[in-house]
Queue: 4 jobs
Job 1
Amino acid sequence: MEKLFVLIAEDDADDRFLLQNAFEEMGYTDKLEFVENGVELMDFLQNNSNNSNSVPGFILLDLNMPKKDGREVLKELKQHEDYKTIPVVVFSTTKNETEVKRCYELGANTYVVKPVSYDSLLKFVENIRSYWFNVATIPM
């Protein structure tokens, strides 16, 4: 199984722990890099821009984070020449239709409401990973 790289922006420590466990429990050995807010996400990308191994296969992006929220980051990513082709999966508790629409208008590739059960989270990890790494064709 190919090892992949996923950048996860999530301010909640419990959610980070559950995501880490879900990837491991599904048998994935992917490199997961966690950042806690939008400022850290942009800093990570800029500090690693010369390393082709540090370009994520996709970004899992929480919306409600301190310092710079997911909406601001999404807009910035999709306007940046080097980052605009990185798939962004918004991963939020927000189900508001207006919010979902706004994220797609800002350039989100997918919007997923966070699962409420761990079994659902496992299925999400399997599906989203499979889609972005096995099904979708992404420009490099």
Job 2
Amino acid sequence: METQKHQVLELEQLTPETFLIHLDRQNFSFKPGQYAILRNPETGEGREYSIYSSDQENRLSFLVREIKDGEFSRYLRHLKVGSQLAVEGPRGFFILDEKSLNGHPLLFIATGTGISPFHSFVQSYRNLNYQVLHGVHFADEAYGIAAFDPDRYLLCTSREEKGDYFGRVSYYLKAHKVDENSICYLCGNSDMIEEVTNILEGYGISPENIRTEVFF
């Protein structure tokens, strides 16, 4: 897998724990929904991150949450503009098929920074027939909300009543039936994906129409 060095253009703070790291794109080619491995070019240490930016931008962007005791996220947080970061990839198959690209009803379900591939989807493909459920703890964690059509985006907040729905995405889905013809894309932690998959299958959605990307 090809690895090349990219220059850090900007670190954009979103919340006290979460930031966007913007790199020069060079000739990096990817399909929206794929991920890359960011590496310290000196030590080789790295971690996988879904690509947040569209396939039409001149820069390459990643959404990062600084994790307590997470050495690599702290390393990224303290990179300086102009420094180098190694990028390996792209990798992954969490991409939209022709049916999804041609108007079929889509349901995007994300928790936390799992919104990244969906941000890339909607920024890259402007005519998708989608709905987004984004589960976070607090409303200020609605990362990239401006990229989504407000009529197609629903924020589920589990620790304050400032979103569109107070509770987890799984609670919302239990109370609101999903059309069995939907193609569902899930990205987030493994517990959410397992629980939501069971809910969707209970609504009659076939396993091949439930596509998943485990974020952490």
Job 3
Amino acid sequence: MPDDLTRLTAAETAAKIASGDVSAVEVTRAHLDRIRAVDDDVRAFLVVDSDGALDCAQAVDEHRANGEQLSPLAGVPLALKDVVVTRGLQTTSGSKILEGWVPPYDATITRKMREAGIVILGKANMDEFAMGSSTENSAYGASRNPWDLTRTPGGSSGGSSAAVAAFEAPIGIGTDTGGSIRQPAAVTGIVGHKPTYGGVSRYGLIAFSSSLDQAGPFGRTVLDTALLHEVIAGHDPMDSTSLDVPVPPVVAAAREGAHGDLAGLTVGVVKELGGEGYEPGVEAACRAAYAKLEEMGAKVVEVSCPHFGYALAAYYLIAPSEASSNLARFDAVRYGLRVGDDGVRGLEEVMSLTREAGFGPEVKRRIMIGTYALSSGYYDAYYGQAQKVRTLISRDFAAAFETCDVLVSPTTPTVAFKLGERVDDPMAMYASDLCTLPAPLAGLPAISVPAGLAPAPGGGNDLPVGLQIMAPALADDRCYRVAAAIEAALGGPLADRAPVLEGTK
């Protein structure tokens, strides 16, 4: 048995379990030990379900002993973002208003993972209701970046990205509304994919912005990410926005891309996603990645998407407007926190006291922005205009894809920033997602793959840089093919080069 099962990729782990070299229980115990060793520092998990994880692993071992054919990821442990509903296991969405809530049902992706024998280790930390770029908006404290514990692991899916980067889990689930899978993946040196909107069921995701939210996979390698994508994707009649189409061949594309042949592919570098505000080290790493693409046979050209510069403004009207509607369900009546119910106060006062106590500052800010944007006399001027900009962004993509197979850019303008550095400056925090916002506004797939390291501002360890690859709707496989080629060209997973955390064996 290897000295440290936590260092294996998900694909390697699954192969060893399938061959009988190790048991799923041994793998799960190794990851639970790793969590105990380092998570006091990383703070990736809100809840660790040791008993449930070991029971799932034991069931996988029993099914395999009986000769049953199991899924490609059976027995592989996973970190699950706490916005995804889990039957019998607390789900808070990073908010005090749902503290202690134990759902009576599973989200569709939870059910699919259980059926595949994936071992859910626990629920990962996140910005409250997925509103944030650093996990600092979590009601339960910030997670930390394993590359530098003074820095953010990104957000809102920072707990999942930190867990995967810290070898607490080989794979993870996040959700991406404006960049909340890709941005955390970039700053922690792992792979994260936002699927085509409707490609993965939203049933059982606690809603932030219903026209934008999309669950997706994290992994330390492109192949691991694709394997998880294949498990969770597909049509779901429980989700009216779910696409009834075949799942793109993402695993085959990841395997093909690893050979490094991109002949015949045209890659468009988005002119507007660079320049002022982008750290020199980030741009240098991405330029080196573009050169690698050319070496592998791709034609690399510059393309202009002139309306991408308006994505930030459009997003921060559309998403808060939808959040204002979605979060109205937290009314102190049906579930969750209930404050001030003394038998004297009326329902409206109880509701007001509950929402005041239960929601954090960023959630309140976005509810107020959204409510204002939807109010009488302002709807057309704000929400309506933002939707028109969204259409223009979609047209920019369509025009670019007439000549390009994929588009590329940095995933984030900077490497991971220091915790506390942007908490009092919402606009600086929002700027973390400048590159990631256009794709969800258009409903398109996009992946972040490590492109190397760049100097940390102020000194310290060099930090990961992410390269973003965007493709047309339902062409998720193109994202994986190009990402796998970059990964191979740069010598394999970047996460393997992360500093060793204290507490490791």
Job 4
Amino acid sequence: MTSSPICVHCCHCSECQRQTGSAFVLNAIIEFDRVEVNGDVVENTLPTPSGKGQVITRCVECGVVVFSSYLSRLGKLRYVRVGTLDNPSECPPDVQIFTSSKQSWVPLNPDIPVYEEFYKFEDVWPDASLARWHKLFGEKD
């Protein structure tokens, strides 16, 4: 990533659990053109519960998902898997989402906002992140 992300989600939805084989995923949401890819990748399009679809981008060598993009936001945003970064500790989660489907044994950090489902961006994101979003989409959320 060539800049800080707009926001980092710690997503506990059942789809993220299934896709990652883990209890949650950390996604750094960032503009498409602020992600540099070094090496070969392969894309797979997957259905999503919303019906909007998602493109999963994997490293050709190891098969690890590096980032994803929702088809409705393709060419605008990437959801970078924080664990693939050289320094994942630099991207702690800003918000914990879809906690209604989290695994019961996963504790939630009380210092990070928690939402049972999704949330309104303006409830969590700083003004600079909202400005970046509006520049991309010209919409409120």
